[in-house]
Design a protein that fits this description.
homodimer, 145 residues, mainly alpha, 7% strand, globular, DNA-binding
Chain lengths: 145, 145
DNA sequence: TATTGTTATACTCTATAACTATA
DNA sequence: TATAGTTATAGAGTATAACAATA
């Protein structure tokens, strides 16, 4: 029996993580820190609480990631306009540049991956992946309560 | 524009990792340790060098994972029959049980995921994933040298 | 009283470098 | 001289619990 959806997705996951870690390394960013930048880039300046919710991680964890991103010049902690307890995590120009390049690389890889798929299979592949991701999302949400 | 292959794969990867971590937790296994058990289960008793190569990780890292698996009763270090420098990592009955259940869960999830895909799309989905994984493998291998 | 972020502490995974015992 | 594994050290990511400041 050839590998099923599960095996293929697992393998793809591993490879994607490897590839992303490799491409981030020269910029001095880890996957976890990139994830924070990505969340701020889509979604705008965010409180650490919001980031914790979006990355499904503890607030304490965000404190550490933001500390590192501040130290390396990718984000700043700005005062929240209406809540003096909170901060607004904001991207620096350096981070905006990284994100712009990331979006381009991202699009290039999407094209490259789709290019190796038989044109007749492309629509079905995307539909199938959508369905699978939706089911997985439901499973995980359900388990998380 | 709806999400492309890349986004869908990334999302699926994240969800799969979450789901696997969740299902392993009650058994007292982390993803990295499970990965070791999996490599020994398929492939038979292994030296730590072989495991390091298969998991693409340093030998020192394997020492730590094996230490933890020995301490929790999932593997034993047996003497290598012909090389007195090496050891053979072997699964305990407890680990064999865990693996048997894992294989069942694995098959169940594969079926469950495929079930939500339109039957007319299934073959194309598998072909497409195969092609994408092959391309990703080539990209990563090429980058690794 | 509830929420935002931080200090304190700890565990897991990972890496490099130096060392030992054996090949 | 090269290989298998370990000791020593370090850093990143993650978690819980207790605490301060503010809402």
């Amino acid at each position: 029996m050839s590998p099923g959806v599960f095996d293929l997705l697992l393998r793809a996951a591993d490879l994607l993580n490897r590839d992303m870690a490799r491409s981030l390394e020269p910029v001095g960013l880890s996957p976890a820190r990139m994830h924070v930048l990505w969340a701020v880039h889509h979604g705008g300046p965010a409180s650490q609480q919001r980031l914790a919710r979006e990355l499904a991680v503890t607030p304490r964890n965000i404190t550490g990631l933001v500390d590192a991103l501040v130290a390396t010049g990718f984000v700043t902690r700005e005062p929240h306009p209406t809540d003096r307890r909170a901060v607004l995590i904001t991207l620096t120009p350096a981070a905006e540049e990284v994100m712009a390049r990331s979006v381009r690389d991202h699009a290039a890889l999407t094209e490259e991956l789709l290019a190796v798929v038989d044109p007749a299979d492309r629509a079905a592949l995307l539909r199938g992946l959508h369905a699978v991701v939706a089911r997985l999302t439901a499973l995980v949400d359900e388990a998380a309560g």
